[in-house]
Amino acid sequence: MPLAPFGFALHGGAGFDPQHDYTPQIEQLRTVTAQARTQLQEGAAAIDVASQAIIAMERCGLYIAGRGASANAEGDYELDACLMDGARGTAGAVAALQGFKSPIQVARALMDHSPHVLLVSQGAARFAREKGLEPIDDPSSWFTPALTGESFACADAGGHGTVGCVVLDQHGHLAAATSTGGLLHKYPGRVGDTPLVGASTWADTQVAVSCTGHGEAFIRRAAAVQVAHRLRFGHGTLEEAVAAVLADVQSANGAGGLIAMTRQGEIRASYNAYGMKHAYLLPDGSIHAAAR
Ligand code: ASP
């Protein structure tokens, strides 16, 4: 029996700066989680709730996803996003996308309306244009970088974070979605873990996972799908699987965190970084939200 008829967890990225006031981020996490709760109560599909939650997070400009994304070393904004529908086993992703307001919408359109899983750069932008998705006319006025400064790695800098969610709907279907501008001052063309199915984002019939942190380490350890494989092949509980995967990421010199949700409605929000902005629904329907 599920712990609850549905479930929802959201993260706003790894990293925590004790000098920083995260009240606006926490409020936003609460607002988006409350919206997801309403949609799930009304019977919405997990993949739709995931898409809409990430669109809201991309739009708000408080995180390094979507509007709040940081520029790369050349001052350009190259965005990564991925989502996965656990019930259908389908996924859509974009990497190094420029010129569109919602990378997760482009990823969703790719999943729904093409035979492909991942498009990059100009191909992703061309697809978004063909699908009539909302362009950015003037990047300098659209982007409001949530993180600025000299630090290369947002997970170290207490940055405002990648965004991601995991969802269980009333039909027992799971979905996961993740979106980011990537690491501050990243090398042009650098693709992190976020748009890679199995590295940062995974959903199947048993578990959904969304990761944040040093992307290269999450790629090297196939972190998101590793959680699923540990459960599938009987290597312990969700808590044990998540702890083992984060230890594995750490062994690749990676700091970060992840959220995970099982088909039974069990949730984990864990990190080996200084913190991770996150929120989730408790079994009584109330919302837990915290910066660490
Ligand atoms: N994982 C992201 C990347 O490496 C960054 C982050 O989650 O903070 O692009």
Please tell me about this protein's structure:
There is one protein chain. The protein is of the alpha+beta class and 292 residues long. The chain is built from 8 helices and 12 strands. It has helices at residues 23-41, 46-60, 103-113, 121-130, 139-142, 215-220, 223-232, 238-251, and strands spanning 7-14, 79-85, 90-97, 118-120, 163-168, 174-180, 201-203, 207-213, 256-262, 267-271, 276-281, 287-290. The strands form 2 sheets. The protein has an 8-stranded mixed sheet with strand order 4-3-2-6-5-1-11-12. The protein has a 4-stranded antiparallel sheet with strand order 7-8-9-10. A hairpin with a 5-residue loop joins strand 5 (163-168) and strand 6. Helix 2 (46-60) packs antiparallel against helix 3. Bound molecules: aspartic acid (ASP). Aspartic acid is lined by residues 13-14, 154-155, 161-162, 180, 182-183, 192-194, 212-213, 215.
Tell me the name of the CATH class.
Alpha Beta
SS elements, strand count? 12
Tell me the count of domains.
1
Series of H and E elements: EHHEEHEHHEEEEHHHEEEE
What ligands can be seen in this structure?
aspartic acid
Would you identify the CATH architecture?
A: 4-Layer Sandwich
Provide the structure class.
Answer: alpha+beta
Ends distance: 30 Å
Average pLDDT across residues?
93
